[in-house]
Amino acid sequence: MWFSWNWEAVRLFTRLDIEIWNQSYQNPVYMLGLLPQERLEAALKDDSFLASMDRVYADFRRYLEANNTWFDQTHGEAKDRVVAYFSTEYGIDEGLPIYSGGLGILSGDHLKSASDLGIPLVAVGLLYRQGYFQQYLNADGWQQEFYPENDWYNMPVHLERDTQGNPIRIDVEMADRSVIAQIWRVQVGRVPLYLLDTNISENAPHDRVITAQLYGGDRDMRIRQEILLGIGGIRALTALGIEPAVCHMNEGHSAFLALERIRYFMEKYGLSYEEAREVVWASNVFTTHTPVPAGNERFHPDLVLHYLGKYVQKLGLSHNTFLGLGRENPKDSQEAFCMTVLALRLAAHCNGVSKLHGAVSRRMWKNIWPGLPEHEVPISAITNGIHVRSFLSHDMADLFERYLGPKFVEEPMATEVWQRIYDIPDAELWRTHERRRERLVAFARRRLSSRLERRGAPSSEVAFADEVLDPRALTIGFARRFATYKRATLLLQDPERLARLLTDPERPVQLLFAGKAHPADHPGKELIRQLIHFSRDERFRRSIVFLEDYDINVARYLVQGVDVWLNTPRRPLEASGTSGMKAAANGALNLSILDGWWDEGYSPEVGWAIGNGEEYDDVEEQDAIEGRALYDLLEKEVIPLFYNRGRDGLPRGWIAKMKASMSTLGPMFNAHRMVAEYTERFYLSAGASYKKLKADQFASAKSLAAWHKKLRKQWTGLSIRKVQVDTQTDLKVGANIEVSAQVVLGKLQPEDVSVELYYGQLDSEGKLTKAVGIAEMERVQTADDGVHIFTGKIPCTQSGRYGFAVRVLPKCQDLIHRYEPGLILWE
Fold it and tell me: Is the domain of 231 the same as that of 343?
């Protein structure tokens, strides 16, 4: 799949036959099968083509064989610690349709950047026979779904075989039967992606369809898919001879892998459940993507036990203990089993996908760590990024090659490289951008025309498709999943005002929409229908277009050709979003609610913000206020800036904003930066813990498990008896408040715990503000009755009123972090 982010490789296929390339939907295997033999023979005699092929192939070999990647140069000593990345979908290229949207594109970008950076990573997913649905609209504008069959023998996938040439297969127990899966491989540059497939004759019809559709079926189907992904995925790696040092769960769908890793260590190395859990917890990484509780995968306990009841026995767990792993309150027998909770409990390294989403996630899941202040909940944030070369237009890539130099390919996350965008002449950048807008308009007209013909529309309506849109007009794009919280129709709430904007003969504006609603999301489908009916209004027919069947191909045309990328979610429901990053890399300007990535990416120099980050209880009021703010921005800032041209016809102010956006946002919201951050913050630490806990026949894991067992047993014996403060009426800034505390440790030793001062300034209600400090107290004395005396100091760095509390937490040098659920004592 290396070709998918290397334009010169794509150009080889288009030179052979661009019509067949498009007919095959940019699937190189299928394309070569359709190509007449005479065309291949003609290419053999084409010296120019052969020279290009040799050059591209030489680049490809250099890429695969390079031993000076970022990882080689910075962390080469950890090359033997393999990271296994699990995701339910992967959007790598349009010719491999096993993705639905943003989560899949992010997964694909993660693999591409891991390949570019040389990270020792493998990936695991499912091979969907029908993938995600293709979208078409009926005459009323209502979304219809079509599921085409994928022919894997004509796609860029390879069946994994053993030394005798037989397909490698694994078994996964589900209830009273065993499901068999075979393994296919997609080679994403240096990274192998292994995909499980149950559509084989040995399985019952009920099981052959487990890998039929992405996000299809009922709850029964979903849990079987997730058992296959998590448990089956680990078994697939084992069958291939891979024992990963680190497992990264991208969203909660694959969380069952944590249980299978525990079972694997118990069975292979004779460890207890607690000992195996120490190894797995320390070496698991979990990324959550969903900022609303209802969006997280939950299953009825009876359904979970139906499929995993016998499996749990192998772990030595009771049903209640097992179900408690997936519950915020393990003692609540009525609570559903949540995959996100399971992942959070069995991964030491957890994160959201933007700074704002990290804060939202800590607030959502704080009940898993009762007694812990929200800001200390062990969920951090690594903001998403995009694989720039996968979405950058070839026109812009040519510009970058000339002015940014080869380092753009080698170090696309380097800020100093992106600063060279200012060296691109304004006229050259604007001409490049205008060509891409013209290409987008032509694409939209062709696509609209073909859809109308397929629907049997009158010839006059089909002919009208050639008149829609203006290749010179300000073009605004909105493309994403049609969920109600994304508010695709926010801009349509004042038709009269919108009509004045779109039909201004001097300063015309046009809107392009695309996106799918989940097949079961009827409110989302209704939004699409409303939009279609709105676009049929005579005032808007030429300036509002909905592009059906949104996918990677449509996305490329949009992010490369629009002037403005519009995003209008209800804050804080957009975890991150990446489409705006793709648009920004191509020179489009973002106009967005301050949510997800834009909350940290926005500044007045690089785009526009709708509102100031407010959050509302009344959604109708929110829509009205933010809708008016959107119209105001368009009328007063966006449109005037676009149409303010100099004598040379160039919008100098707009171009300056384009350059600021590209140079500022490009290195920040970049998948290379994202994957390097995962590596240095999580993968290396998790891999080192795995190596340490496994050493000397798991000596550290066994010791840590025994310590945890003692800690949990003795924790209730802790108490804080008396706290004394060396008080004065007034203290000056720079002084210290001295505090002593009498702590009863019972059968625990002082080195088992950290006694701390948790302090900060108080607000008007006498509560600690978020800006708190933590100071560990020192043991100074042990009284005859076993009471330990600890002392500490609170620094008074600012004037105001201070408050504090004493608390006790676990302490051990082998802990990744000390936040154990339920193990915190406050005075």
Answer: yes
Pure H helices in 512-595:
522-535, 552-561, 579-585
- Are 635 and 530 in a shared domain? yes
Q: Which domain holds residue 247?
A: 66-384+680-690
pLDDT at 495 over 90: yes
Query: Do residues 90 and 231 both lie within one domain?
Result: yes
User: Which CATH number covers residue 287?
Assistant: 3.40.50.2000
70 and 206, same domain (yes or no) = yes
- Contact 252/230 with Cβ under 8 angstroms? no
Place of tokens 């045309």: 557
- For residue 131, what pLDDT is reported? 83
CA gap 677, 671 in Å, rounded: 9
Tell me the C-alpha to C-alpha distance, in Å, between residue 583 and each of 543, 577, 787.
Answer: 20, 12, 63
CA atoms within 13 A on the CB side of 197: 24
Amino acid letter for position 398: D
Q: Are residues 466 and 547 in the same domain?
A: yes
Measured CA angle at 20 (ends 19, 25), to 5 deg: 100
For the segment 585-596, the average pLDDT, to the nearest whole number, is 97
- Residue 496 shares a structural domain with residue 625: yes
In a domain, 575, yes or no: yes
Q: CA dihedral defined by 240, 241, 247, 250, rounded to 10 degrees?
A: -10
Contact 687, 77 (CB under 8 A): no
d(CA 714, CA 808): 13
- Tell me how crowded residue 401 is: count the other CB atoms within 10 A of its CB: 13
Check pLDDT > 80 for residue 272: yes
Peptide bond between residue 406 and the one before it cis (omega within 30 degrees of 0): no
Per-residue pLDDT, 768: 85
Within this chain, do residues 375 and 244 fall inside the same structural domain, yes or no? yes
Q: What SS3 state is found at 386?
A: strand
Cα(254)–Cα(227) distance, rounded to whole angstroms?
8
Q: What is the dihedral of CA 212, 221, 552, 105, to 10 degrees?
A: -130
- What letter would DSSP give residue 636? I
Tally of domains within the chain: 4
Give the whole-angstrom CA distance, residue 653 versus residue 75: 43
Which amino acid is located at 469 in the chain?
A: L
The domain boundary, picked from 45, 65, 85, lies at: 65
Alpha helices in 456-521 (DSSP H): 459-464, 495-502
Is the same domain home to 61 and 121? Answer: no
Tell me phi and psi for residue 616, to 5 degrees: -120, 150
pLDDT of residue 728: 67
Distances (CA, A) of 542 to 111, 141, 545: 40, 17, 8
Query: Quick one: pLDDT at residue 462?
Result: 84
For residue 698, tell me if it sits in a domain: no
Per-residue confidence band for 815, with pLDDT thresholds at 50, 70 and 90: confident
Tens-digit pLDDT profile for residues 148-206: 999 998 999 999 999 999 999 999 999 989 999 999 999 999 999 999 999 999 999 99
Calpha distance 39→44 (Å, rounded): 9
Nearest CA to 721 out of 772, 776, 785, 775 is that of 785
Would 600 be classed as within a structural domain? yes
> Among residues 640, 651, 626, which one has the least CA distance to residue 504?
640
